[in-house]
From TrEMBL:
InterPro entries the record matches: LOG (IPR005269), LOG_fam (IPR031100), LOG_family_nucleotidases (IPR052341)
Enzyme class: hydrolase
Name recorded for this polypeptide: Cytokinin riboside 5'-monophosphate phosphoribohydrolase
Record EC number: 3.2.2.n1
Keywords carried by this UniProt record: Cytokinin biosynthesis, Hydrolase
NCBIfam families associated with the record: Rossman fold protein, TIGR00730 family
UniProt xrefs under Pfam families: Lysine_decarbox
Keyword Cell inner membrane: no
Lineage, opening ranks: Bacteria, Pseudomonadati, Bacteroidota, Cytophagia, Cytophagales
Amino acid sequence: MKAKKKRVEEDLIKEALEEEHRIRKAFKDKDWAEIKGANSWMIFKVMSEFVEGLEKLAKIGPCVTIFGSARVKPTNPYYKMADEIAFQLVQQGYGVITGGGPGIMEAGNRGANRAKGKSVGLNIYLPHEQKGNIYIDPDKLITFDYFFVRKVMFMKYSQGFIVMPGGFGTLDELTEALTLIQTKKIGRFPIVLVGKKFWHGLLDWWKKVLVAEKMIHEEDQELFDLVDTPEEAVKVIDDFYSKYLLSPNF
């Protein structure tokens, strides 16, 4: 017990020192060679991630992205809902894209795999190393260093977004999609929030603060749908494309 406590304390100290080093490094003066070398490497790394993503996803076909928490366990009702949503999406002719990790992402890939459909994972390198889950098609797993490149791939190759409960990462992905649609940078694809109880507080705040303070227009609240069941979530996607008489395969 003492040894375990000591390891935890050592890990906390190490983490604090690494964080301090990152902060100090940001203020350190760099010479021209350091700046040029670091920037050149970053540019080529970003380019390589864009090239790999564009090449692998260009012919992926109609897909819906499922966002949600990596911390949700298989026993959680939201995990089971994400699995079922993905399963039903595949039955309707869609592939499924997730962030490639555990939790809701794993559930989405699992449902797609269970329905024998396309199961895509856009994974991300993290300090504690997020590994791609086992339900992703081997030829459809891409791992990124940069969150912004990964988000471009989500937005470019999705015909709809299912947003399950999640934390900061999920909120980042949700607001990215809403912003791009609001500013007409991408088409008016359906965004479906799943879990009325979970999302109630945030949506109430948007209405009482963002709309009231004129930070967003009242009609911006129509950019998404709120549902409680897998059937409702999939119906929103299907109804959207039926309404505009579009095939999602574009």
